[in-house]
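tmp note - [histone H3]-lysine(4) N-trimethyltransferase
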Amino acid sequence: EYMGRQSGVTWGSRREACWSASLSVHSLFCGAAMEKFASPGKGNGLRLLKAVKPGQLLYRAAPFAYIVSKKRLGGVCERCLRSKERLPRCSQCKIARYCGAYCQKEAWLDHKRECK
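out:
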């Protein structure tokens, strides 16, 4: 947990700090001092405010979406991507595989659109 206060906004973890759209300048993104800026005609961007070491983690975020490649289909859980020898299949489509009931339930909102 990381507790900080920047630009009048308080966040409780580095992830929230990285994702907070309301932070304007001098935010901490995974330990690196960065600022969000607008580039006319191009959108928004992030830039470093000081030099960093090669290989230093600058930004980390959960993906908005991901899929399992055809090569790995059936060998990994479609929610957490954990590989197991035996993965139970979705009882409806018989294609999607999950490592357990928890992952299947968590994935259902997205999976139900493709499950037929």
